[in-house]
Amino acid sequence: MKRTFEVTPWNIVTHDFKPEDKRLQESMTSLGNGYMGMRGFFEEDYSGDTLNGIYLGGVWYPDKTRVGWWKNGYPDYFGKVVNAVNFIKMHIKINGEAIDLAKDQFSDFELNLDMKKALLTRSFTVTKGDAKVAVEFVRFLSVAQPELSVQRVRVQNVGSNKVDLVIDSAIDGDVKNEDANYDERFWEVLSTEQGTDSGNVLAETTPNPFGTPRFTSGMEMRNVTDLTADKVAQPSEKEVVNKFTGVLAPNESAQLEKRVIIVTSRDYDTQAAFTDAMHQLSDKVAGQSYDELLEAHEQVWADRWNKSDIVIDGDTEAQQGIRFNLFELFSTYYGEDSRLNIGPKGFTGEKYGGATYWDTEAFAVPVYLGITDPKVTRNLLMYRYKQLDGAYHNAKQQGLKGALFPMVTFDGIECHNEWEITFEEIHRNGDIAFAIYNYTRYTGDTSYVLNEGSKVLTEISRFWADRVHYSQRNKNYMIHGVTGPDEYENNVDNNWYTNILAQWTLKYTLQILKEVSPEQAKKLNVSEDEKKHWQDIVDNMYLPYDKDLNIFVQHDGFLDKDLKPVSEIPADQLPLNQNWSWDKILRSPYIKQGDVLQGIWDFIDDFTPEQKKSNFDFYEQYTVHESSLSPAIYSVLAADLHYEDKAVELYERTARLDLDNYNNDTVDGLHITAMTGGWIAVVQGFAGMRVRDGKLHYAPFLPKKWSHYSFRQVFRDRLIEVDVDQDGSHFKLIDGEPITIDVAGKPVELSK
């Protein structure tokens, strides 16, 4: 655990700059607007360790899979997000010397991410010889005009001597990915154009042998300043630069605004249309002032916060944590583009390749259902439907029928190169099926499940029916050779979570097949023999259980391990994944994240209080929470069991996972999909929100540390406010038709 920022309700702010923590600070001051995003790296020269990262939604590259021993069924390539052309680059010189905080003497440092306004500010005072200047950078990625990046830099002479100032504003196509199997460069610059106060760079991703699309990006900058524009030679065939100069007397200041329009070939059929759009958008924003651009951006964020802010009184750490979670989640995805999804690192780093994982269906869907219009979640479901062809390919690669949705993907084709994930973590198919059910249960909208969703369910069920095998000895269907959600257990037999999801998916699909139209049933073409086989699997699926402990056994052989609780591990050996060999981890009983408990959370109303208690008490003691997705699930279950202190402890871990760097890995980027955990823990945990038979249920409690909390929830065309304080719980209908909810077993009528 390491805290590098101050604790404030709406800001991520520090006045302390330590080079050894720079990557950590870059991750935690990342910005995004759904269309693009960037780490909080410096605009100006910095010669120390840094990860300069800018990423564009849907722009990726199929890097050749690199493995020591090729196995049949491996994907040909590993998809990864491409570090974009650097369009925020600047050089600032004082009396001919470049500012470089890795070398310079400076004071009054402040780095401040304003989450309410989605605005990043950085300021410092630097001394170079007899010159002393105060510098302030401000940047935002507009949510009102998603293609727009805006920067402003102010330089004030706070010394006693005049200062010669030079600001070079640049766009640089000579960038690389830190995550590249063979150290390639992924961009080829097609053209450049450099004026005195404007310029652009067009670049295309390099050719690939896999037939996946190449992407073109265009960045056009226009600079507005009170400095003098000097005509300069273009520095290279990959970079354009505008040079601005001036002389600052003591107390004088100068300012430069840099506006960049970013477009990609994802949105245009031809390069001519692409280039025209870039110029037209540049003209459009040129007609607006900085204040107008910022105000439009802030208004969209204000609307988002009005619908989704969670207010916590009495615990500023908890308040900052949940807002940071929601801020970075919204910065990554707000449903505007149905072609996009939510990568585990979002726009904040290159780890996990920027691809889509099962995190979306399991963790993001419940949150977006509660805070956005249902069409946002429907887009996430359509994302998978549109990639069915890739899922067929993945199943065929493994010699199986039906559809196997990928563990990691951009286009539906599996592009992960670890066998224990690619081949074995097949519970993802069940998670995708469960998301369809979750959407339908929450919204009451059956239009998806009875049409596109029924196709997805049918093809997943065909996969499960082929993947199981029948044990003649035990007279049960089993699933061998899998990895469950707990990735510290590979190639196990009969993972309970995988088996129960397979069983449930087949059962749910059979139910939906009874409800689809005759026309849809004909398209699905599920024979009576198939249905009988699926029902036989449902009736005879093996689900490991130990009657003495009254627990569902995570997988065959788990109880034969050396069962010692996490409390017996020396503190200096945690996290395990950074201190133990993989072999030692696999042989241990230690659980990376909820596995059995993930299933109990999914189907929380289907288990008795005694079952939930015995399983939680048993598995919690062995769980190290070294997956960012883990604490939220345990927090909800702890709250359900009235283990309120444990629920709060685990909420604090999920809400402040990155802010306090719990797992010592935030330097790589934020855990975006895990940032759903704070909302899940508060709404499903502390407020006890459930949907049963189309009705909202709540059973709120107030954590001892808190004096009050409130949130708003979208449900079936209503916006409901939930307010919990020391006097109890209070509910208000903000928008929509009257509704009856259940609070601790009693009906409550809500109307405006």
Helix content: 25-40%
Q: How many DSSP H or I helices?
A: 19
Strands ordered across the widest β-sheet:
1-8-9-10-11-18-15-14-13
Shape: globular
The CATH superfamily of the domain at 33-66 and 77-307 appears as Glycoside hydrolase, family 65, N-terminal domain
- In terms of DSSP E residues, the strand content is 25-35%
Q: Can you tell me the CATH topology of the domain at 33-66 and 77-307?
A: Beta-galactosidase, Chain A, domain 5
How much is the radius of gyration in Å? 27 Å
List low-confidence stretches.
none
Oligomer: single chain
N-to-C terminal Cα separation, in Å? 46 Å
Got a strand count?
30
EC number: 2.4.1.8
Keywords: Glycosyltransferase, Transferase
Family: Belongs to the glycosyl hydrolase 65 family.
Domain Glycoside hydrolase family 65 N-terminal: 14-266
Question: Could you describe the 3D structure shown?
Answer:
The protein is an alpha+beta fold and 752 residues long. The protein has a domain at 33-66 and 77-307: Beta-galactosidase, Chain A, domain 5, CATH 2.70.98. Helix content is 30%, strand content 25%. It has 19 helices and 30 strands. It has a nine-stranded antiparallel beta sheet. Strands 7-6-12-17-16 form a five-stranded antiparallel beta sheet, with no helix packed on it. Strands 2-3-4-5 form a four-stranded antiparallel beta sheet. Helix 4 (316-332) packs across helix 18 (644-655), helix 6 (374-385) packs across helix 10 (452-467) and helix 9 runs antiparallel to helix 10. The longest helix is centred in the middle third of the chain and has 19 residues, at 290-308. The protein starts with 10 loop residues before the first strand and ends with a strand. The mean pLDDT is 95.
